[in-house]
Structure to design on (129 residues):
């Protein structure tokens, strides 16, 4: 497990990411596309409602995968794969926001990408379960 402080930091980052992606994903699943667009997610108007809900489902599954398997001791390696998947999801979001010239959405997407990538690096590498 390496440095216990780094392991604690990865758990903390995973917890924050879990809360953020769980909230964002449930919002995309539970709200109509028009309401999401009115709340500042203009990109949702460029996609069918099913695609927006699919993104939400990916975020919810990724959020749960970051912490639940490792916390239960059942297939804890899923945490690394979930972090990688969320990093890839955020990379897609960054590309989307750049193409749509939505500069205000970029900082959050970049931070979430960096945090998810850090967890993936740590859990695949020196701080794997």
């Amino acid at each position: 497990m390496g440095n216990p402080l780094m392991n604690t930091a990865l758990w903390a980052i995973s917890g924050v990411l879990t809360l953020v992606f769980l909230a964002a994903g449930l919002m995309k699943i539970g709200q109509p596309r028009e309401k999401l667009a009115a709340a500042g997610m203009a990109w949702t108007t460029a996609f069918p409602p099913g695609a927006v809900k699919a993104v939400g489902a990916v975020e919810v599954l990724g959020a749960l995968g970051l912490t639940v398997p490792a916390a239960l001791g059942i297939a804890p390696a899923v945490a690394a794969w979930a972090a990688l998947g969320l990093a890839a999801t955020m990379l897609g979001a960054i590309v989307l926001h750049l193409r749509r010239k939505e500069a205000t959405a970029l900082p959050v997407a970049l931070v979430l990408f960096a945090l998810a990538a850090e967890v993936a690096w740590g859990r695949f590498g020196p701080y794997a379960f």
